[in-house]
Design a protein that fits this description.
By secondary structure, the chain is mainly α. The protein is 62% helix and 12% strand.
């Protein structure tokens, strides 16, 4: 599956955090995501932005910084979607 193949690169990046080149790759990639996808929504700054998945959870420090840079309100960062679904249906 393509998503697992791409996630294997994220594992390498997470295992080698701290090296300036790795940190630049992480920051540049997430910045591109923010600019390309989230920045295109005219009113994205009005609502909290939530993230789900191991990659988002592993790089949540960079995501927090980028939300502040882009003036987005950071919502929740969940490692596994099931936790959020269970909480949502308990409230309903």
């Amino acid at each position: 599956m393509p998503n697992r193949y791409l996630a294997s690169f994220a594992r390498f990046l997470a295992d080698n955090r701290g090296h300036y080149m790795i940190e630049n790759i992480i920051e540049d990639g997430l910045n591109d995501f923010f600019f390309t996808h989230l920045g295109k929504y005219n009113e994205a700054w009005k609502y909290p932005i939530n993230f789900v998945g191991g990659i988002a959870f592993g790089f949540k420090d960079v995501i927090k910084e980028l939300c502040a840079t882009y003036n987005f309100e950071l919502g929740r960062i969940l490692q596994k979607p099931m936790k959020g679904l269970i909480e949502y249906h308990k409230e309903a």
